[in-house]
Amino acid sequence: MRLKLGMVGGGEGAFIGAVHRLAARMDDEFELVAGAFSSNEENGKRTGERLHLAPERCYASYQQMVQSEVARDDGIDVVAIVTPNHLHAPIAVEFLRSGIDVICDKPLCTSYSEALQLADVVRETGRQLILTHNYSAYPLIREARSRILAGELGEIRYIEVEYLQQWLATRLEETENKQANWRTDPKKAGAGCIGDIGTHAWQLASFVTGMLPESIRAELTSMIPGRVLDDDVRVQMRYHNGAKGRLWASQVACGEENGLRLRIYGSQGSLSFSQENPNQLWLKPFDSPMYCVSRGSMSQWEENRAMSRVPAGHPEGYLEGFAQIYREAATRLREGGGASPLLPGIEIGLQGMAFIDAAKRSDDNCGQWIDFTQYRCSS
């Protein structure tokens, strides 16, 4: 039986809500039955009609939705939160305390202190909170992780990750672009480029290597005059084993579309992955010819090959990554929880907010190295 899904946000003019709805439907694990899609009541009603939901289950507010759904015998099992960042935590707290599990878009919230409070609520209620870091659910990212943890690259020495876009290379926020408007507003976004795509790069590097740095230093820049939040981020990382790392995230890199790239170098070889070519993982053993593992090929590890939804040689990436998160979320929710190193939860959310906080502190102090071990990164 499919899990009953509710959604907060994702009304007309929104972007990520439709992505979540497609992902939730892809494996028939969820059925969308309720929503509070917009703070604009008419927008919410129109969205509900377009999605063929019962009118009485299209709510004017998330508070109304919680109250009504908890009282129903057929109320929702889980809610997807797809609002601007400043609403993630208050909405999540409301549903968690009402006994409803949460699937939330990233980043977790707007500050590290707020993340700690939310983590305490997750622990106290015993409910699930799952973050949709979809790139970590690509089959070949899982392949990279498997090979690194199996020791194929030897001891990790260098971690290089970048996420480059061009879409904010002009003052797009001065137009009617809804996404640019809220993502450049400190009250709604909390952080700029570092929160929007920097956390994706950060999570991907730590997910694949299984490593968090001991210390980081950062420079956050607003390249576009008049923009309040950062649109370009440079971060250096130091790891416990002596490894070094660099992270570059930018939304003003002209010519770039969605350039999420990862390179890992070890004592026995290296690997590289580009999100814009998600069906290829390049492996370069020490003193041996490089080779490519393609998604769905027999050279891919069986458990990662089984994740593929379409035959080898067909494009698979962004939507399927979201769908994999939803598929694994359904399994966790049906089994009543339990830790999983593959499914991003509250710990990953805490790590992301700690990363933002440490980077901001470093930037505020002229690039000072910040001890990352001082952060609480688990619930």
Automatic annotation (TrEMBL):
GO molecular function per UniProt: glucose-fructose oxidoreductase activity; nucleotide binding
Gfo/Idh/MocA-like oxidoreductase N-terminal domain mapped to chain residues: 4-132
Coiled-coil boundaries: none
Record keywords, A-Z: Oxidoreductase
Enzyme category, top tier: oxidoreductase
Keyword Oxidoreductase: yes
Superkingdom in the source lineage: Bacteria
Keyword Oxidoreductase: yes
InterPro entries, A to Z: Gfo/Idh/MocA-like_OxRdtase_N, Gfo/Idh/MocA_oxidoreduct, GFO_IDH_MocA-like_dom, NAD(P)-bd_dom_sf
Cited Pfam families: GFO_IDH_MocA, GFO_IDH_MocA_C3
EC annotation from Swiss-Prot or TrEMBL: 1.1.99.28
Residue stretches making up the GFO/IDH/MocA-like oxidoreductase domain: 141-271
Stored PANTHER family: CONSERVED EXPRESSED OXIDOREDUCTASE (EUROFUNG) (PTHR43708), OXIDOREDUCTASE (PTHR43708:SF3)
Protein name listed in UniProt: Glucose--fructose oxidoreductase
Organism: Providencia rettgeri
